[in-house]
# Entry
Amino acid sequence: MVTHKYLATDYELIRMKYRSRTDIVGLILEGANGGATKTKIMYKAFLSYAQLREYLAMLLENGLIEYEEGRQTYRTTEKGIRLLQIYNHMSDELVISNK
# Structure
């Protein structure tokens, strides 16, 4: 098993290989919930810095996250939290259906 700073299960590591853009957005929104630096979000979502920059730009443009200048952190907006809730609900339903 590959070890990371944040330990992941075998299932999570397998899923990381085949993540959709939606999965990655969900991980970023979850990582930024409550406020987080780029580095924290990058580690939580298992992304390179270049990938993270692209996703953050898209999420900022769509009003799903906001940048807090003074604290130099990103925070999931209310709109982003609603999307994250929908994403989590859909993921749960898909897991139940696959069983």
In short: The domain at 21-98 is CATH 1.10.10.10 (Arc Repressor Mutant, subunit A).
